[in-house]
Amino acid sequence: MSNFSKDIKEEVEDIKTKVKNIGKEKQSLAYEMLQEQKKQNKRLYIIIIVLCIMLAGLGTYTIWLLNDIGVEEVIEETTTYTQDIDDVGDISESNIVNGGDING
Questions:
Q1: 63-85 pLDDT per residue, tens
Q2: How far apart are CA 29 and CA 39, in angstroms?
Q3: CB 91 within 8 A of CB 72
Q4: Distance between CA 50 and CA 1 in Å, rounded?
């Protein structure tokens, strides 16, 4: 064989190697892009979960506030006094003094 054919074979082998390397570079680039997309999806998933939890907490707090507005627990004790007054006549001449006590 001549030197020319040996040179051509070496060039063909060199080109084949370069083509294989280009294919590997494209695969690694695609793989890197997929890995980056996976990381971004994970971040977005966590953000969505946190936002849902915050929204649920806000809704629960709002319902609790609306339920609590205007509710006041008041215990009121009342006592009743009954007095029989027979024929007192004029109020100024009655035996009743201020406060409901009877002088007698």
A1: 988 887 766 777 777 777 666 66
A2: 15
A3: no
A4: 73
